[in-house]
TrEMBL record:
Superkingdom of source: Bacteria
Pfam families assigned to the protein according to its UniProt record, in alphabetical order: MFS_1
Record InterPro entries: MFS (IPR011701), MFS_dom (IPR020846), MFS_trans_sf (IPR036259), NO3_transporter (IPR044772)
Segments crossing the lipid bilayer: 20-40, 52-72, 81-100, 106-126, 138-157, 169-188, 213-237, 274-295, 301-321, 333-353, 365-386
Protein name: NNP family nitrate/nitrite transporter-like MFS transporter
Subcellular location: Membrane
Keywords assigned by UniProt, alphabetized: Membrane, Nitrate assimilation, Transmembrane, Transmembrane helix
PROSITE patterns: MFS
Matching SUPFAM superfamilies: MFS general substrate transporter
Major facilitator superfamily (MFS) profile domain: residues covered: 13-391
Organism: Phenylobacterium koreense
Amino acid sequence: MLSRSFLKAGHTPTLLSSFLYFDLSFMVWVILGPLGVAIAQDFHLDPAQKGFMVAVPVLAGALLRLVAGVLVDHIGPRKTGIAAQLVVLAGLGAAWVLGIDSYHQVLALGAVLGVAGASFAIALPLASRWYPPEHQGLALGIAGAGNSGTALAALFAPGLAQVFGWNNVIGLACLPLAIAFVVFLIFAKDAPNRPPPKALTEYLDVLKTPDAWWLMLLYSVTFGGFVGLSSSLTIYFNAEYGLSPVAAGVLTAACVFAGSFLRPVGGALADRFGGARALTVVYILAALGLALASFHSPTVWVAFGLILFSMMALGAGNGAVFQLAPQRFGKEIGVVTGLVGMTGGVGGFYLAASLGWAKQATGSYQAGLLAFAGLALIALTCLTGVKARWRRTWIAAADAAGSASRV
């Protein structure tokens, strides 16, 4: 998968720095999910409050991705990444030193953690601009595999919370973030072909293009499902199957690692077979897995298997969507990454919050999971309607520009 031409095409230190920055930022972005059982016990939260608690950082990250995308185009991804990391380190440090004493303060911390979620709109353009179109899927898949950081939170945060207390885990998270920050400072470089900044009004022009809205819809399902489940699974396994926070965290981490591993695979398959073909398979598999998972399984292992299957499909879909985006919006990749990433986060907010609301209203997570399976089928229908036009127009445009394209 890592061919000699790929290794020669771009800038490997920047690619790996982008991955590390993205990975550890995502670790803290969703950390309230793995800590959610302990936080809920301290503040006596109901299922709806727990769902909203883990959804707030996802929504904040979604909205801030658009801001990050604009900054990437104006001052470059490296400077934007440095500023974002300093904000997150300062926010976590302040929360640890001052302490968190109420549910509303937890929500305020969640809003600050949204800055870490905005790393998506910074790390991906930083890596993408170093690579030609024929290697975009794999490069963005590798950088985007940093969403595996959500697995690190699920794997380590519950156990550390048992030993040190959940508030101290927030302070401990600053240590790996500081290491990633130093690596980023030393090794990350802006690509020499960075497009000139545009006036703010020009960014609205992207929204006049229907293709931008289609990509936003597609990603709201793939990434929304991935991050929404990543944020909620520790609470889900604890509430539905009585697992301890540590055991629930281990199963959550396995699901997230599997989905993250499939992201570069999805990008590579999209490079080879076309992003539309890859996404067609993704949405069918994800809808099937989520629909089956919505029925209360007889054992936790059956439920784990179904959710693992769904997360792998969604992870591959994340890579496939971002194989398509640079082909259509190469010059506007910063703001498009922000827009597409924003709607991905909105999808994650919806899923995490709807699972909590469904549990509160019906005593089951089924309605929330079935509704998201339905969204996957809607995305499949929309993709089927536009992919023929994409193949005609995008490939023709790529041929005229003398570059390769596979839709």
